[in-house]
Prior knowledge:
The structure holds two protein chains of two kinds.
Chain A: E1 4-9, H1 13-22, E2 32-35, H2 38-50, E3 54-60, H3 69-77, E4 86-91, H4 96-106, E5 110-113, H5 118-136, H6 149-164
Parallel strand pairs in A: 1-2, 1-3, 3-4, 4-5
Helix pairs in contact in A: 3-4
Chain B: H1 14-27, E1 35-38, E2 43-45, E3 53-59, E4 62-67, E5 73-79, E6 84-85, H2 87-92, E7 99-102, E8 106-112, H3 113-122, H4 124-225, H5 228-239, H6 245-258, H7 264-272, H8 274-280, H9 282-286, H10 291-331, E9 339-341, H11 343-353, E10 362-366, E11 373-375, H12 377-397, E12 406-413, E13 417-424, H13 431-436, H14 456-467, E14 471-476, E15 482-489
Parallel strand pairs in B: 10-12
Antiparallel strand pairs in B: 1-8, 2-7, 3-6, 3-8, 4-5, 4-7, 9-11, 12-13, 13-15, 14-15
Amino acid sequence: MNRIFILCVEDEPEVLDAIVKDLAEFEKVFPVESARSSDEARRMVKKIAAAKDKVGLIICDHIMPDENGVELLTDLQTRPETAQARKVLLTGQAGLDATIKAINEAGLNHYIAKPWKKEELAAVVKKELTQYVIMNERNLMPYMGVVDAAKIAEAIHIRGYGADR
Amino acid sequence: MGDNTIRLKKIKDAAEIVRSLREILIEEEALAGAVKNYGNDEIILTEGKLNENLSIILDGKIRLVKFDENDVCTEVDSLEKGDLMGVVSFFSGEPAFATVQTATPVSLLTLDREQFDRLAEEHPKLRRLLDELIIVNMVNRYRRGVRMRMEIETLSRDLESERNTLKDTLAKLENTHNRLVHQEKMATLGQLVAGIAHEINNPVSALSRGVDNLTEQLKTLLSEYADETEKSLFAFGLESGATDSDAEKVLLDELEKAYPDMERSLLRVIARTGAKGIKLLEKPLKAHKKSEAMAVLRKSAMFFEAGLFIKNVKVSAERIGNLVKGLKSYSRQYHTESELADLRDGIKDTLSILSNRLKKVAVRLNLPALPKVRCQVAEMNQVWTNLIINACDAMEDSAVPGRQPTLDISCGGSDDKAWVKIADNGPGMDEDTRKKIFDPNFTTKRMKGTNFGLGLGLSISVEIIQKHGGRIGLETEPGKGARFTVTLPAAKD
Lengths: 165, 493
């Protein structure tokens, strides 16, 4: 169906509720999927791919049972279904080493420290989704309403030059 | 064997030889002038000078000394009655290898080369005696050399032994220093933790009480201004358990299929209300194309979410409260004396404090009743902390994909003792490591950023346990994890 999903990975249910609630404004255009563990996250990625949809943004906690967030993101970076997805760590506890690994090996795009303010999260999500659609979508119009309209307009303009050749 | 042959079979005592010599000398008056007498501390021959005389000590003691490059004087040998002086330089022609000084008044018989040769020729018996004397002297010197060599060896060994003792003492000192630093740190940490715990207490109380009051007030308001459906949905929100991910996702998928034009975020909340909630919302759902129905659905969703988020706040406030309680109980800032304690409480407090560290670990508890122990609870908590963290580190370092790190904690006891066993399924230890694991400054932890072992933890734990009159045992094999058992004497009451 070609929808672009935001995947939230967080093992604490109350925190997950809060993240999903904060993303409600984006769901008109970018549906949100949630996962409480890295295993569930992988299942959701498969489900999304099976429905011919895409993962545009992954917001991931770090400390989780089984695999931690950085390991998950590093793995997802190597998979075709999620290699293009923007990746954000939302965590209270990634140490320096883990963060460096996330940047160098997982293509981390942004790091938000917990506790977060809704405005901060919304701004980051907007920025990352804008980047995603500009880099991955041919038709940018459907996203105008939700992402950074100015950047979209600019991108369309620039592409206009390319198409003329 | 002729007269001129030196008979080695019988070496006479040098004193005896000198006596015979004197008798002969008394007969030979010509040699009377060859006897010289010296007082105390007189230098007879200087090191490095050529020596043309062979002397025999008739009486007194002589010392041989050498001076080193710093002019420090060392006595290298001493000669007494019956000893020959100047033998080496007389026969070899080399300069004297030491300075000769009298230690007491000395009487010397000194023969120059001419006298010696004449005497030897004219008195074969004397010659024989002199030869024997020379041999006795050489043998004695050799013996002295051997004895000195032995003394040097003994001194060397003593020195080595002292050096080792010093090394040990230094190591012990360093150790004590590290322990003291560690104790200081723990004390400061304890104070910090206690301070923070107290600071947090007040806002947590306000939070808990606030949310309870809020809940009651909302309920009251709702009973006045909300309809039955809305009141029920609020209640469903308040009661909702942890998200049942899979079931709710299935519900959400069904709802999306049934109502493809409705907002996913709204459908998600409706799915969350569960079967009961969806039943209540059947009518507006079916009529959702109409704007009034949508308004109803949105409002209903809000009531549910209000209940849900209040529930979340309550749960979170409780968690903070428990953490703080756990912290205070764990650190026991105000109980520095021994208490009669159920060890299980300390273990549970410790597990609560470490719950973040244990997220990846399956913790299995088997904690039947056990006799109470008289102990410093905060110190014993340090021991549990140390053992549990070590287990976590070991299991983390050697993570095997597919194998869940597992911590098994059990306990038990009898009339006179209580034990706690902490077992992990990490890599275990080989014989070598097992022997050294309790040594201070020994660590198997690698340097990983800020996570490195100082090796103090276990040795301090051992001290704490021993201070309580207990013991710690370790069973481990490579590949089969490690099991630490702490045994403490039960309180006698």
